[in-house]
Design a protein that fits this description.
The protein has 212 residues and is α/β, with parallel strands linked by helices. It contains ten helices and eight strands. It has a single domain, classed as TIM Barrel (Alpha-Beta Barrel), CATH 3.20.20. The longest helix is centred in the first third of the chain and has 13 residues. The model has no long low-confidence stretch (mean pLDDT 96).
Length: 212
């Protein structure tokens, strides 16, 4: 399947769910090796259900991101250090499935960056609301509001291979941004959870609405 996908240029990345009951480390290694032959950068979903070895195989293949990470210990943290793999936590899935939480503070204290994403999908995280993810990051994972914003913007852009053009407001980057309703400060975003604070959205520098 991989050569056919590559032939029609249908994918930029190759992603494997390396976890208990799904793809093994050996199977993941084979799939990622084949994908890399065809220019697909590895990404991986791992350690959601158990210590699967997925983080180690992700780093071995220089994966752009390693997602879920509910089961992370000292060995996994040491493996991620000095790698180019972004640890990406999916709070919506942990909330919806009532799973244990990824040890985000331990990872950050060890010097790792952390990205936060929604994992928006019908099976385990049926919400793409990133304002809620910012609230989860602060309340459940003990991140500061600024850390949560970094995790859901510039770090998430890196996890998608887009940090040179997206993820922050800077000269030369794509003008994708939002303007909030009047709020007192940054901390109000995660504090006032469950309520939409966004008033205007701009994509490629053009204001977006349901009419255009």
């Amino acid at each position: 399947m991989i050569p056919l996908v590559a032939k029609d240029n249908l994918a930029d990345f190759i992603d494997v769910f390396c976890d208990k009951g799904f793809f093994t480390v050996e199977e993941t290694d084979r799939i990622l090796t084949q994908g890399r032959k065809y220019g697909m950068r590895p990404k991986i979903h791992a350690n959601e259900l158990d210590y699967s070895g997925g983080i180690q195989v992700a780093v071995k293949h220089n994966a752009l991101s390693c997602d879920h990470l509910e089961f992370v210990g000292k060995e996994e943290i040491e493996c991620l250090k000095n790698s180019e793999t972004m640890p990406t936590v999916l709070p919506g899935a942990a909330f919806f499935l009532n799973m244990k939480l990824s040890p985000v503070r331990e990872m950050m204290n060890a010097g790792l960056p952390v990205a936060m994403a929604s994992d928006f999908n019908p099976g385990s995280s049926p919400s793409g609301n990133m304002q809620t993810i910012v609230s989860f990051a602060c309340v459940n994972y003990r991140m500061t509001p600024l850390e949560a914003f970094n995790a859901t913007t510039i770090n998430s852009a890196y996890a998608m291979g887009l940090s040179k053009t997206h993820g922050s407001i800077a000269k030369g980057k794509i003008a994708n941004f939002y303007i909030t309703k009047e709020i007192p400060n940054l901390e109000y975003m995660p504090y006032y959870y469950g309520i939409n604070k966004v008033e205007r959205v701009f994509l490629n520098g053009v204001e977006y609405s349901s009419q255009n």
